[in-house]
C-alpha cells in the first residue's frame, strides 16, 4: 500500500507541486460524500423496515371485518386474483374410475335396502333409479356428507288416469308444472322428499323414507285424475 501511494505521488508531482494535495483533497471529499450517502441509505432502510408492519390492514379494520364476517368475502383484494387459473378438470379415465367406484358403493348400500312392495331398482349413470310403476320414479346418488349421505337427483310422478295395459310401461303424465298452485304443490313435494333424505335415521333405508312421503300424494293424485275422467 505504501509503495502504491509513493508511485501515485510521483505521478501526481509531474502535474505540479500542489497536484498531490489537490488530488488527496478530492479523494477525501468523495469518500465523505459516499459515507454520507451510505449513512442516509441505511437510515431510510431502517425506517422503511419499521414502517412495513404498518402498511398492512390495521388491527381494527371495520370495512374488512364487515366484508369477511357479513358477506363472507374480502372486496379489497386485487381484481387480478379473481381471474386465477381454474383447477384442471378430471380426465376421461379419472371420470370412468370415479363412476366405477360410485357404482360399487351404490351396489353395496342398496344390498341392505328393504324394498317397498312393487318397487323396482336399476343402476343408472352414477345413481340408483327407484321406480314404482304408476306412482313415481326417483334417482338417488350418494355423497360424503355426514348428516345426509343421499342426494335426490330426479323425481318424476308416473300417475296415470287409467290402469296400464299389460306389458306396457306407464308414461309420465304429470311433470313439473310451470304456474299457479300446482307449482307450489310440486315444490313442496320435492322439498318433502329432500327433507326425508336429510334425517340421520334414513341413512340405511332412504327408499323406505321416500316411499312413505311419496306414496300418499301419488294415490291422491291418481284418485283426483279418476274423478276428473269420470266426471268428464
From TrEMBL:
Q: Which GO terms describe its biological process?
A: regulation of transcription by RNA polymerase II
Keywords for the protein's UniProt record, in alphabetical order? Activator, Nucleus, Transcription, Transcription regulation
- Pfam families referenced in this protein's UniProt entry, alphabetically: Med14
Keyword Transcription regulation included in the entry's annotation? yes
**What InterPro entries does the record tag this protein with?**
Med14_N, Mediator_Med14
What are the Mediator complex subunit MED14 N-terminal domain coordinates in residue numbering?
1-143
Enumerate the subcellular locations listed in this protein's record, separating them with semicolons: Nucleus
Q: Does the keyword Endoplasmic reticulum apply?
A: no
Signal peptide from the UniProt entry: none
Task: Name the source's superkingdom.
Answer: Eukaryota
CC terms in the record's Gene Ontology section:
core mediator complex; mediator complex
Chief localization: nucleus
- MF annotations from Gene Ontology: transcription coregulator activity
Q: List the PANTHER family.
A: MEDIATOR COMPLEX SUBUNIT, MEDIATOR OF RNA POLYMERASE II TRANSCRIPTION SUBUNIT 14
Q: How does it assemble?
A: Component of the Mediator complex.
This molecule's function is given as: Component of the Mediator complex, a coactivator involved in the regulated transcription of nearly all RNA polymerase II-dependent genes. Mediator functions as a bridge to convey information from gene-specific regulatory proteins to the basal RNA polymerase II transcription machinery. Mediator is recruited to promoters by direct interactions with regulatory proteins and serves as a scaffold for the assembly of a functional preinitiation complex with RNA polymerase II and the general transcription factors.
Name the protein family: Belongs to the Mediator complex subunit 14 family.
- Supply the name of the protein: Mediator of RNA polymerase II transcription subunit 14
